[in-house]
Amino acid sequence: MKLTGFWKPTLAFMALSAAAFGVIGCNSGGKEGDTSGSTAGGTANSDQPPIKIGMIASLNGENQPWGVDSKKGAEMAVEEFNAAGGLDGRKVELIVEDTGSKPEGGKAAADKLVGKDEVWAVVGEVASGITLQAADVCQEAGVPLVAVGATRVDLTEKGDCIFRACFTDNFQGAALAKFAYDDLHLKNVAVLTDRKLPYSTGLSDMFKQVFISLGGKIATEEFYDSGNIDFKAQLTNIKSKNPDGLFCSGYFTEVGPIARQRATIGLNVPMLGGDGWDSTKLLDSGGDGIIGGYFLNHYHNSENRPEVKTFVENFTKKFGAEPATAMGALGYDATNVVLTALKDSKAKNAGELKTAISKVAGMKGVSGVITIGPDRNAQKPGLILKVTKEGFVPEKQVEFFKF
Q1: What is d(CA 294, CA 299) in angstroms, rounded to the nearest whole number?
Q2: Which among 37, 130, 141, 268 has the fewest CB atoms less than 10 Å away?
Q3: Residue 332, H or E segment
Q4: How far is residue 138's CA from residue 116's CA, in Å, rounded to a whole number?
Q5: Mean pLDDT of 302-328
Q6: Nearest-5° angle of CA 60, CA 132, CA 352?
Q7: Residues near 276 by beta carbon (within 8 Å), at least 6 away in sequence
Q8: Is 391 left (phi over 0), alpha (psi -120 to 50) or beta?
Q9: What CATH number has the domain spanning 170-297+384-398?
Q10: Rounded distance between C-alpha atoms, residue 9 and residue 248, angstroms
């Protein structure tokens, strides 16, 4: 099929001041991974009660690297907003709930934020399977949700309250298929899919559809379940089909061991995957087997764009190190989608804020310029990264397109 509909930014975004930061509070008083119920920006002086914005994040469990980064990014966004005067002097309070990296945790966290805390909007989550559960809660309550990193296509089909600040798997899968076919000149790719992970199944489906449409062939597709540690049977079957590439659509937690085991059986073909690879833990678990692989991500700390430089500098100053994953930037961007809508509309409730979020356009985020499309998905670019022994290196910018 023809790749059409390249996006262009339409409005200039007024950057929020980063001159000062607000005060962070934490109900739990615990360590980084035990911050359920934490708040940010709610203690600043104001004659009016703060506007409550909720966040759901995996602060514990296997997705913790993403959850912690997204929380930090959201805190930065709220602190900058409040330092710049808030909404005509009225401050925003960020209330963070831990999902524990579980779908049921997403539902429970959203129930608490919407029911008890009466937030005007919810930011999060990173994982599609977790976000889908929270989306049901928010849609029923009429509270807008802006997903941080949940790329599964059908998420925003839940209803008019559900948005996202990241790209979708339709774009991600198409971009990876096009890169594999046009840039790596692969013609016969095998696919390895986590059948328990909605993100993985959706991304694999899109990759296959586009790769075939471009003229490529799918040598075979093998499946595994999240939590597996032995993939030799699947990899042996894949090797017997003589593919010239391997597309792995799962999370870094399994992709690392897959890469290491791939190398041990002599399946020496390029590996590709999506933003689920994004963790420095991939380098440790994948060893030499992951070196030379490619994956699509939302941005990289080393990019030369002013938005990236400023964000990384401020993040490092506040937290003592650069963001470990792209979810720091996406947590920041997703929260700023809400705050931009709030400031532009001067919304007085969740319903008005929902309408304002749908009109966000041309917002200069760290992960790229963001426009919320009519399908409530962010129209934005992606970045192909190559895995090296030194880390992830930008390979190619991919402008937004529709397949």
Answers
A1: 14
A2: 268
A3: helix 327-345
A4: 13
A5: 96
A6: 105
A7: 199, 200, 203, 249, 250, 251, 252, 255
A8: left
A9: 3.40.50.2300
A10: 32
In the block, which residue shows the tokens 């008890």?
116
CB within 8 Å of 170: residues ≥ 6 apart: 153, 206, 402, 403
Our CA angle for 11, 13, 19, nearest 5°, is: 175
Token pair belonging to 79 = 């602190």
Retrieve residue 391's tokens.
């880390």
Q: Give the helix/strand (H/E) hosting 394.
A: strand 391-398
Q: Which residue has the tokens 């532009």?
A: 344
SS3 letters across 276-313: HHCCCHHHHHHHHHHCCCEEEECCCCCCCCHHHHHHHH
What contacts 253, CB < 8 A, 6 or more positions away? 62, 226, 281, 285
pLDDT at 7 over 70: no
Q: Give the CATH class of 24-167+305-372.
A: alpha beta
**Nearest CA-CA partner of 73 in 369, 333, 360, 310:** 333
- In Å, what is the CA distance from 46 to each residue of 50, 332, 340? 8, 24, 20
DSSP 233-289: HHHHHHHHT--SEEEE-S-HHHHHHHHHHHHHTT--S-EEE-GGG--THHHHHHGGG
Mean pLDDT of the region 68-95? 98
Mean pLDDT of the chain: 90
The number of beta carbons lying within 10 Å of the beta carbon of residue 27 is: 12
Q: Are 178 and 210 in contact (CB under 8 A)?
A: yes
Domain ranges of the chain: 24-167+305-372, 170-297+384-398
State the pLDDT confidence band at 37, using cuts at 50, 70 and 90. low
Q: DSSP assignment, residue 92?
A: E
Whole-model pTM?
0.82
What type of residue sits at position 148?
Answer: V
